[in-house]
Amino acid sequence: MSTNPTADLGNMTLAALGDFIESLGHKRFHARQVYAWIWKRGVTDPEGMTDLPKALRAALASQARVATPEVVQRSVSEDGTRKLVLKLGDGRQIESVFIPDTPSQTFCISTQVGCAMACAFCLTGKMGLVRHLTAGEIAGQVRVLLDTLDMHDTPFNIVLMGMGEPLHNYDETMKALAMLAQEQGVGLSPKRVTLSTVGLVPMLDKLAAEPLMPNLAISLHATTEAQRVAIVPPSKKYTLHDILEACRRFPLAKRSRITFEYVMLAGVNDAPEDARRLAKILTGIKGKVNLIPLNAAPGIPFERPSDARVDAFAAILAERGVTVSVRKSRGRDIRAACGQLIVEGQGRRSPAQLLSEAMGS
Ligand code: SAH
Fold first, then answer.
1. How much distance in Å is there from the Cα of 54 to the middle of ligand 1?
2. pTM over the 0.90 mark
3. Domain spanning 70-358: which CATH class is it, in words?
4. For residue 296, which atom of ligand 1 is closest to its CA?
């Protein structure tokens, strides 16, 4: 018998929930009902799960809980984008964003508190990695967005483009996608999910073998090794060359393509010759390019190129047969746009703080 009072039902796959319910002395098929209450209907209090036997409701109430990130701040942009600041069980904070009508409804979800990648143009990168999120915290953001926006019956897509590097938190990210895909719950097809990564090559190869395969977006941002190392530090280990090779061997469904994100930094990577080189290095890869003109912010030592410069870059790619789009930045006025997610005041703890926490003071 499990008597763990902190069992978190919100961090369990359907199978794990079945095991847990069995350990409480009940039939495991009830897991499907509980899963539907939590993930389909947004009911987290066992007392509200009215089709369960009374004894099971009581057991769940006393021995389990559903940890749900708490909304501590909401902002609405003039373009309709909404940003939620969410507080986790340990007090750490993350941000999740809702981007309406793009043309579909999109949730931008975080996978870590902070990020270890330290890209030179990204505010989240300035925080460093505070910690990984659990699968329950990753998928839980979707639950909170569905509840807060009253969207349980609306189709939506997910982009793993919030705070963090999803492939640096591989197992929890994949578990979260499996939890969200579960038909008894949200039933979100992995085709509706886009995972954006800086390109951690071994993890890309691992992803290539997954049964639940999200769409892939690669944050390329540069066309030469030197240029990429200067702005995306992990390139020291995983070169542009190796990333492109991993993309070449990545299995793609019939109509799908890899998205190559390219942040445009004035005077750094936005010249016509960069565009020509970009078209060249992508030759032979089923891909498309998404140009993201920099979202400038204090502390970010780069500038956004002019629209004319962006258009000229896009035109060169298009002339060479590369499918290209320019990302319209949403929610810049509430700092919800790409690279602008940062929650202040929770940086890495000092050794003294860690020690005092370990001592329980
Ligand atoms: N760690 C993942 C997710 C990051 S956010 C990744 O690197 O792909 C999604 C996109 O926003 C990435 O392509 C990232 O490079 C980009 N981005 C980061 N900071 C930005 C900024 N200030 N302006 C525009 N795009 C930015």
1. 48
2. yes
3. alpha beta
4. 22
